[in-house]
């Protein structure tokens, strides 16, 4: 049934669906967005995995303080990010889209053995991969409070606390078929960026896919002054710390950094270790890098 409904939704142009949704009250739109995102994700997983797909309930939404630390960039985002339906709809939609992207470059759900989320926060993304039978899942984060909450509320995933500097808690190399880091390298200071890229490379299997996001043109325009943008283009990078009024809400709360890099510098930095398979600009969100560890 879910597959049939999702198939109908897929055949309706997005602009038609979105126009219809905008005519509804916000709460109703959010509920319908969640239903659509979950149906499409579950239909996709069933199609790919058949009996290897074991449906699982998503579990609870994280408490407000954890969401504010891990998912809110601007004050204007807070109300939307704290809506339960939006929280889960974005999780289903994002992990669905990322698995589809990874498939284009050789990732196979049916043969994957292990996946990792760096900067796992409240496990908004990786929790949805628990439906893959026997897939080993790990989440790691520098925020011990988030990890404690995940351990108490989200089963089926091994959670770890990591330090601000590598290494991760995995002694074995070549361990993960898939890894992702959503809004993580956006906060890693430039002086430790290469060490973290090398650490992700170490724990990935040859041929494994690593997906991460970076602050692209939309955030550069919104968060930096014209003078700062000029310096970014001239030098290749620009960094705000948590004391800056321009820094995001989450950065100010946790005391991290806001890291901006040009397209060329991102490609050079991540390409020093990984094969850069794609670099997707997103006009309304963070840009996405799709990377692969050479075989």
What does this structure look like?
With 295 residues, the chain is of the alpha/beta class. The chain has a single domain (57-292), classed as Rossmann fold. It has twelve helices and nine strands. Strands 3-2-1-4-5-9-8 form a seven-stranded mixed sheet, with helices on both faces. A two-stranded antiparallel ribbon has the order 6-7. α7 (144-153) links the parallel β2 (136-141) and β3 (158-161). The longest helix is centred in the first third of the chain and has 24 residues, at 26-49.
Short description:
The protein is 45% helix and 18% strand. It has 295 residues and is an alpha/beta fold. It has a 7-stranded mixed β-sheet with strand order 3-2-1-4-5-9-8, with helices on both faces. Strands 6-7 form a two-stranded antiparallel ribbon.
């Amino acid at each position: 049934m879910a597959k049939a409904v999702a198939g109908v939704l897929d055949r309706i142009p997005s602009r038609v669906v979105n126009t219809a949704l905008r005519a509804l009250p916000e709460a109703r739109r959010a509920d319908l967005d969640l239903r659509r995102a979950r149906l499409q994700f579950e239909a996709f997983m069933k199609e790919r995995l058949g009996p290897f797909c074991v449906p699982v309930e998503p579990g609870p939404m994280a408490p407000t303080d954890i969401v504010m630390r891990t998912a809110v960039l601007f004050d204007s985002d807070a109300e939307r990010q704290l809506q339960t339906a939006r929280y889960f709809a974005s999780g289903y939609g994002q992990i669905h889209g990322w698995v589809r992207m990874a498939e284009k470059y050789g990732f196979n759900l049916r043969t994957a053995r292990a996946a990792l989320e760096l900067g796992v926060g409240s496990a908004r993304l990786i929790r949805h991969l628990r439906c893959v039978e026997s897939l080993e899942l790990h989440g790691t984060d520098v925020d011990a409070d988030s990890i404690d909450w995940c351990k108490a509320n989200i089963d089926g995933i091994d959670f770890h606390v990591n330090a601000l500097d590598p290494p991760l808690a995995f002694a074995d190399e070549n361990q993960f078929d898939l890894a992702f880091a959503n809004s993580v390298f956006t906060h890693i200071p430039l002086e430790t960026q290469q060490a973290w890229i090398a650490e992700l490379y170490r724990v990935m299997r040859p041929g494994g896919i690593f997906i991460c996001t970076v602050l692209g043109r939309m955030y550069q325009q919104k968060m930096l002054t014209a003078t700062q943008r000029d310096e970014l283009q001239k030098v290749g990078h620009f960094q705000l710390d948590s004391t800056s009024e321009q820094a995001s809400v989450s950065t100010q709360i946790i005391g991290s950094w806001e890291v901006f890099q040009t397209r060329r510098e991102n490609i050079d930095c991540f390409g020093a270790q990984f094969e850069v398979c794609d670099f997707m600009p997103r006009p309304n969100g963070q840009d996405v890098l799709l990377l692969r560890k050479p075989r």
